[in-house]
Amino acid sequence: MAAWSERLAGVRGVLLDISGVLHDSGEGGGGRVPIPGSVEALARLKRSQLKVRFCTNESQKSRGDLVGLLRHMGFDISEGEVTAPAPATCLILKERGLRPHLLIHDGIRSEFAQIDTSNPNCVVIADAGESFSYQNMNKAFQVLMELDNPVLISLGKGRYYKETSGLMLDVGAYTKALEYACGIKAEVVGKPAPGYFQSALQEMGVESHELKEHRNKLP
Amino acid sequence: MAAWSERLAGVRGVLLDISGVLHDSGEGGGGRVPIPGSVEALARLKRSQLKVRFCTNESQKSRGDLVGLLRHMGFDISEGEVTAPAPATCLILKERGLRPHLLIHDGIRSEFAQIDTSNPNCVVIADAGESFSYQNMNKAFQVLMELDNPVLISLGKGRYYKETSGLMLDVGAYTKALEYACGIKAEVVGKPAPGYFQSALQEMGVESHELKEHRNKLP
């Protein structure tokens, strides 16, 4: 316990990733299993004086579905404690009057239910998995090429992630494809964008120097 | 005629592109139509003292199919006059003992009929069109990630091309996706790689200073 106290001196909050920290990924986003010891570790954190928040790049499932899955696994977590790229993107879209063409997984489509997608003036790309067909990629490309000022918002920039069946291409690869084809640079909403971490901290009410981020497995 | 002679002083050969020079692209690689005047312009070049060769990045059709289509349009062209990325790639694969996993359009699969594709030690990517599914991209990605020394050969690096139905994503975009995901750099076989032009010149028996490349429509 002494070591813990020393390591956490001056720390007021803990910002946790979810995939690879609380659970391991299963195939197709299903079959996720808790990492041994992580349920107990989170419970211990929650009993401490530390503020706890979750910061994920999950872009295949809605925040509600994700939290439901985690609670089912035994984690003490609520939707309001999770910073996720889709809700963060919706805020940006509303602020800037952007109407997206969505190249996303059906699992997070509900997050954009309140967003006007008519006559699109930007493209939002997320980890669409099997929906990254040539037809869907080409449609997003054509929308961007028809805009005077093409805006591409990417939910994360991951290269790949691991599922039980093997490594899987992540959104970052497809974002690079559109960037190259259109000669543009995407705006990234999600880690490692500094603004994304900042918004998570604001929601915690913690300054960045008071924070301890755990990159590795909890236990 | 005087202007022609002046412009061609010291020129011994003409290297011509095909798509956008001899014909315009139609949807799905079909429906290609000759550009008005180009059949006659090519015939005139062939009657001249100039050596004529075709240098294309076509990677959806085999050289045989492409030439058949052009001859049907009325062009005086034979298979041996065409430098295309697929045959050039086959030479490289044989020279270096590479066994490719092929991420290509079915239309050029016949070009690789003599190539050993068992137990692949590289990936060859071409303009695969609709075959750029998530599953096929992910398979190519996984093959590369399993190699100690991942080799990715890209048939061209085009960003997009135009069909009658609109702009279409080209191989370069998908190559960028794999480069980013794997943290590697592809070897490009096709224009604008200098080695590719050089091989076309060798096949013509012309030095580069004796050449005139036409980038625009012929007539």
UniProtKB/TrEMBL annotation, chains A, B:
What are the recorded GO MF terms, alphabetically? inorganic diphosphate phosphatase activity; metal ion binding; phosphatase activity
List locations, semicolon-separated.
Cytoplasm; Nucleus
GO cellular component entries? cytosol; nucleus
Mainly resides where? cytoplasm
Q: Which UniProt keywords apply?
A: Cytoplasm, Hydrolase, Magnesium, Metal-binding, Nucleus
Q: What is its EC number?
A: 3.6.1.1
InterPro entries per record: HAD-like_sf, HAD-SF_hydro_IIA, HAD_sf, LHPP/HDHD2
Give the top-rank taxon of the lineage listed in the UniProt record for this protein: Eukaryota
Q: Which cofactor does it need?
A: Mg(2+)
Q: Which reaction does it catalyse?
A: diphosphate + H2O = 2 phosphate + H(+)
**Known Gene3D superfamilies for this protein?**
HAD superfamily/HAD-like
Top EC class per UniProt?
hydrolase
> What is the purpose of this protein?
Phosphatase that hydrolyzes imidodiphosphate, 3-phosphohistidine and 6-phospholysine. Has broad substrate specificity and can also hydrolyze inorganic diphosphate, but with lower efficiency.
- To which protein family does this belong? Belongs to the HAD-like hydrolase superfamily.
Protein name as it appears in the record: Phospholysine phosphohistidine inorganic pyrophosphate phosphatase
In its UniProt entry, the species of origin is given as: Lynx pardinus
